[in-house]
Amino acid sequence: MSRVCEVTWKKTSVWNNRSHSMRATKRKFYPNLFYKNIKDPASWIVYRIKVSAAGIRTLKKKGVI
Questions:
Q1: Using alpha carbons only, how large is the chain's radius of gyration in Å?
Q2: Where are the alpha helices (DSSP H) in the chain?
Q3: DSSP the chain
Q4: Position 20 in a domain
Q5: Residue 3 in domain
Q6: Whole-number pLDDT of residue 47
Q7: In whole angstroms, how far apart are CA 48 and each of 10, 32, 33, 36, 39?
Q8: Residue 58 belongs to what domain range?
Q9: Are 38 and 55 in contact (CB under 8 A)?
Q10: Which of 1, 5, 18, 47 is the most buried (most CB within 10 A)?
Q11: Tens digits of per-residue pLDDT, 9-64?
Q12: Does a structural domain hold residue 5?
């Protein structure tokens, strides 16, 4: 399964790691992902979603969590 937030669509990004001599080597930055259980109030079904920390704040702001 890929490392992608299901709310904000944040995903792994690839940037350079710079040493003291400014030599560039590739490195990965992973999103801060968590699994959260979200309950649908209409059908009482619980969905397990993979969401980032920023996505959790968005869901709290919208009143889903």
A1: 17
A2: 53-62
A3: ---B-TTT--B-EEEEEE-TT--EEEEEE---EEEEEEE-TTT--EEEEEEEHHHHHHHHHHT--
A4: yes
A5: no
A6: 93
A7: 17, 16, 13, 6, 9
A8: 13-62
A9: no
A10: 5
A11: 999 999 999 999 999 999 999 999 999 999 988 899 999 999 999 999 999 999 88
A12: no
Our CA angle for 3, 29, 55, nearest 5°, is 55
Tokens of 59: 């869901």
Q: What gap in Å lies between CA 2 and CA 6, rounded to an integer?
A: 11
In residues, how long is the chain?
Answer: 65
Considering the entire predicted model, what is its pTM?
0.79
pLDDT for the residue numbered 36: 95
Cα end-to-end span (Å), the chain: 24
- The single residue listed with the structure tokens 């397990």 is 48
pLDDT exceeds cutoff 70 at 1: no
Q: Is residue 39 part of a domain?
A: yes
